[in-house]
Design brief:
This protein is mainly α. It is built from nine helices and no strands. It catalyses: a very-long-chain (3R)-3-hydroxyacyl-CoA = a very-long-chain (2E)-enoyl-CoA + H2O.
């Protein structure tokens, strides 16, 4: 990896860690001051939309060979999250006012802060043990709460009829397709992370 690429990716990871720190802080602050999940979207929904949109660069990085990650995994995650913040959440008040929207943001935030902070330290060659542990163990819970909350938000948007009414048949069809696909693709994503964890843990034991 060239010095320019390394510097760029470090800056990119730092930016993402900061963006998701803001999302987490605003989400928790709003929740703790209002105790009302419906207050989360007005407070942080727009910021989250654009913070999440940066994920398109993750796909570009894989596509152009800047990082070695599964293209399919990155594509699936990028598409689902972008669709959630640009279509489902804005179109469905029932979904974005629910507790599942809040748990989705918290899960995303903690996962992304951990992931991108790990990338920053790894690029410098000095990732601390606690961060390595967090990167490869938090997903046991965060993947379940995150993906589960995403599915619940999609389901609420369909059940309420809001996504079809506001987005039309095409958007409704995409959401229904995602609802059906979730139980199929989620285990694959989860197993992928477990494989990465086993690989990393074996490497640490040998070291």
């Amino acid at each position: 990896m060239s010095a320019i690429t390394k510097t760029y990716l470090t800056g990119y990871s730092t930016l993402n860690a900061l963006l998701w720190s803001v999302v987490l802080a605003r989400t928790l602050t709003t929740l703790l001051t209002t105790f009302d999940p419906s207050a989360i979207y007005p407070s942080v929904g727009e910021f989250t939309r654009w913070a999440q949109t940066v994920i398109v660069l993750d796909f570009a990085h894989v596509l152009f060979g800047l990082v070695r990650t599964s293209l399919l995994t990155t594509l699936l995650q990028s598409f689902s999250r972008l669709f959630l913040v640009h279509a489902i959440s804005p179109l469905s008040p029932t979904a974005h006012s629910s507790i599942f929207y809040t748990t989705m943001l918290v899960s995303w935030s903690v996962a992304e802060i951990t992931r991108y902070t790990f990338y920053v330290y790894s690029a410098a060659g000095r990732a601390p043990r606690w961060l390595i542990w967090a990167r490869y163990n938090f997903f046991f819970v965060l993947y379940v709460t995150g993906a589960g909350s995403e599915w619940a938000c999609m389901w609420l948007s369909v059940r309420s009829g809001e996504v079809e009414e506001a987005g039309g048949k095409v958007v409704w069809g995409v959401v229904v397709g995602m609802l059906v696909a979730w139980p199929i693709f989620f285990p694959n994503q989860y197993l992928h992370m477990m494989a990465l964890r086993r690989k990393m843990m074996r490497g640490k034991k040998k070291a």
